[in-house]
Amino acid sequence: MSTARKVIKCKAAVLWELNKPFSIEEVEVAPPKAHEVRIKIVAVGICRSDDHAVTGTMMTPVPAILGHEAAGIVESVGEGVTTVKPGDKVIPLFIPQCGKCRICKNPESNFCLKNDLTNPQGTLQDGTSRFTCRGKPVHHFIGVSTFSQYTVVDEIAVAKIDAASPLEKVCLFGCGFSTGYGSAVKVAKVTPGSTCAVFGLGGVGLSVVMGCKAAGAARIITVDINKAKFAKAKELGATECINPQDYKKPIQEVLKEMTDGGVDFSFEVIGRLDTVAELSAHQFIHPFIHSKTIFWAFPKSTALSYAKQRGEMKGQKI
Ligand SMILES: NC(=O)c1ccc[n+]([C@@H]2O[C@H](COP(=O)([O-])OP(=O)(O)OC[C@H]3O[C@@H](n4cnc5c(N)ncnc54)[C@H](O)[C@@H]3O)[C@@H](O)[C@H]2O)c1
Ligand SMILES: [Zn+2]
Ligand SMILES: [Zn+2]
């Protein structure tokens, strides 16, 4: 029996309050409105940014359904949807692509102005939520909310993918892989024969390694305090793996010695402000022509820049 145009009851992980465990709940997922798409989530990844949202360093209104790295199948579409149809395999996009704003039109950027990251409302584009739980509305998270068996997203926040795609693998395109690989290939534009340093070997860092390798880097030096990550890093292209805890000197000194003065490209993919500061200083001392540092996340500094906004949100008791 078709579920189109009906409310779907399903399981979701609800975050009722910051710094509390998720609660597995039955939620109601309303049908998609015009220009929206309801998706059956088949595979979902966990990214560190979900954890930043739980702790409040990445701002989002609660209660909310988090999750932003997933793949699924379109269950039904709202009026006016033309780019996907029921049965299509899709990846939800936490940075939408309206295709019309000045950022979407700029080939150097993709941070669409319709995103829900810079000034998070926890809703779809029309300002409302499709989720309820125990009679209360529950917020969306950056327009995707994938820790739910079903979710609703705006049509501009969904990408159709090949029907043969293995969803349990391609779900990583939803965040970690695109972020890491893209930061090496598109943002830093790693050059053939260069030396790269990658700090942090989570899903994003490992994807940076793949990007550096694809770009033809000669040396990819990876840095992590968890040695268990090194085998996978080597498999994906790391040429050397080092643990800062094995050295008495600061890791930037170790890297300078290893590389005759410094690396060409460095990537901070741990998410620590102090590592970012150290890398900036390191680059400042060695102004190589091509030297470039890419920071993918600094939750604490993000929290600082959002402090005013956060105060306002607290004031509203959201
Ligand atoms: N678009 C974006 O800006 C974007 C997208 C995805 C993730 N992120 C951010 O990127 C960061 C990494 O995400 P992830 O999911 O790969 O995280 P993760 O937690 O899976 O991986 C982090 C890695 O850093 C290592 N690490 C921790 N402390 C360290 C230290 N002092 N020195 C060296 N290594 C250390 C950990 O052992 C781990 O392997 C997070 O802060 C996340 O929020 C940003
Ligand atoms: Zn992420
Ligand atoms: Zn746009």
Automatic annotation (TrEMBL):
- Top class in the EC scheme: oxidoreductase
Q: Name one GO cellular component term.
A: cytosol
Q: Its catalytic activity?
A: a primary alcohol + NAD(+) = an aldehyde + NADH + H(+)
User: Do you know which SUPFAM superfamilies this protein is assigned to?
Assistant: GroES-like (SSF50129), NAD(P)-binding Rossmann-fold domains (SSF51735)
Task: Tell me which UniProt keywords the record has, alphabetically.
Answer: Acetylation, Cytoplasm, Metal-binding, NAD, Oxidoreductase, Zinc
Q: Name one GO biological process term.
A: retinol metabolic process
The UniProt entry lists the main location of this chain as: cytoplasm
Gene Ontology molecular function terms on file: all-trans-retinol dehydrogenase (NAD+) activity; zinc ion binding
Residue stretches making up the Alcohol dehydrogenase-like C-terminal domain: 203-276
Entries under Gene3D superfamilies matching the protein: Medium-chain alcohol dehydrogenases, catalytic domain, NAD(P)-binding Rossmann-like Domain
In which compartments does the protein localize? Cytoplasm
Q: Which Enzyme Commission number(s) are listed?
A: 1.1.1.1
| Cofactor(s) required, per the database record | Zn(2+)
Q: Which PANTHER family match?
A: ALCOHOL DEHYDROGENASE, ALCOHOL DEHYDROGENASE 1A
Q: Which family does it belong to?
A: Belongs to the zinc-containing alcohol dehydrogenase family.
- The protein in question is named alcohol dehydrogenase
Q: Which organism is it from?
A: Sapajus apella (Brown-capped capuchin)
What is this protein's gene name? LOC116538955
